[in-house]
Amino acid sequence: MNWRQWSEQEWKAELSKLYQRLPIPLINKLAALMLVVLMAWYASRLTWLFAPASSAASTSTLAASNATAKGGVNIDQLINAHLFGKFQEQAKTPVVQPSSADAPKTNLNLRLTGVVSTSKEHPEKAAAVIENNGVELAYSVDEQIEGSPAVLKQVLDDRVIIGVNGRMETLMLDGLEYQRLSEANAPIEEGQLQEFVPDAAAQIEAVGPEPAPDIRREVMDQPQKLFDYINISPRNRNGQMYGYALTPKREPEVFNRFGLKPNDVAIEINGVRLNDMQAAYGVIAELREAAQATIKVERDGEIRDIVINLSQ
Q1: What is the pLDDT of residues 56-77, one digit of tens each?
Q2: Residues 155 and 218 in one domain
Q3: CATH assignment of the domain containing 234
Q4: What is the pTM of this model?
Q5: What domain range includes position 135?
Q6: Per-residue b/e over 176-210, b at no fewer than 16 CB within 10 Å?
């Protein structure tokens, strides 16, 4: 009979006969023997894996003992050896602040008509009067000039520094020629400055009426508000600035209340000449605490003292 034609039952019957003929006890013994051999082989593998580590540890301990016996380990030498490299702190890149020392002249169509500087301790309280497109407004530091990309950054004696797209530029007082700040602050050589001494006989004492209390408080609290009432422009004589021309701006009656007349040229405040702008602005800052201010003006060729009562 051909085994390829066997049915499933015939296959099962034949396999059952073969299984009964197998020596089961012998097979069990062989399987147990193979299991013992495999376990012994794995045990030997584990032994060889741990044996080198133990040997190395013993060797290291022995070397350390010998070194200790010879005087100990020099810790400083190990530290100075920089076995893992030497730490180097990365130098911080300094932040470069925009410099106003030699800021170039701005090309913007702006006109600086007045400045109010303050003490060095409070530069943020300074202000400037800037005209743009025929509109004249007072600006504080860090305030953007209306209708312009420029931001007022610094107020100096004869100029302001404006920031335009991250670039520092200079806007000079109307009527003054641009020069670098380092050159402008150069010491004046002897004989270079001609002192202006008014004729004592020409001085006429004039006492101005007391300004309205609300106006005084407004100007004292915010000095830049002065430019809401008075327009100033520098005046030169023999190539040197000697004062500021004063003209009424808003509410001419306020201008008159100060005892001023259009085109008066202020040349001195409380004894400080206005051609020394650093000192002059220091006096302006001190007017907040002053009881009165004496402004020496040139009017129609004569020198007059305008005394303004600043008391409450």
Answers
A1: 455 555 555 555 445 555 666 6
A2: no
A3: 2.30.42.10
A4: 0.40
A5: 110-172
A6: eeeeebeeeeeeeeeeeeeebeeeeeeeeeeebee
